[in-house]
Amino acid sequence: MRSAKEKRPAGQKQYYRRKKVCKFCVERIDSINYKDVKLLSQFVPERAKIMPRSISGVCSQHQRQLNDAIKKARNIALLPFATE
Amino acid sequence: MRNYEIMFIVNPQVPEEEIDKINSQLEGIITSGGGKIEKIEKMGKRRLAYDVGKHREGFYVLFVMAANGDIIKECERRLRVMDAVIKYITVRTDEETRRFDKIKNYRQKRAARRGTGRKPAPVEPVEEAMQ
Q1: How many domains does chain A have?
Q2: Class of domain B2-96
């Protein structure tokens, strides 16, 4: 075990990171609608904050649409602003 | 004329007839102003994501229509005045739908172009002949 660790040059990643892909691009979801709570709630974790792109892997165009949709849904009480 | 959606939440304690009355009132405003209703949908009772006033539940109603600014203004004024209505939101949809159509068109065109370029059809008859 230890020898394997020592062989690895410094700064190299220790595990394989899966490449993130935009869910909306892959599944060809064009319309991000504020009424689609099931879809939107995938991008709002427990605290009801909007999931950042760096975690979800959504592309910038779709993230912008997603943001708008989530904010509209919050306005009409389909999604919470904050929990706790 | 632009396409709009109005979604509003009615107090769930209010009887069903009252909701119908609100709907017909709004319908009257829209049609008399020259708008066209595409859909009225009662989405039913739902738990609200957060408390609005004292309410934890609400009855959702959705209007989809083609109208102009004045009609929307009047509708919103009415909704604000009504006691049974807890919350409402108006969303303009025509720009969005136009964009989707554009994307869809582009995709279809691309698929058609690819279909003629590759010609996948002759593959199957050959297999059939061999069998």
Answers
A1: 1
A2: alpha beta
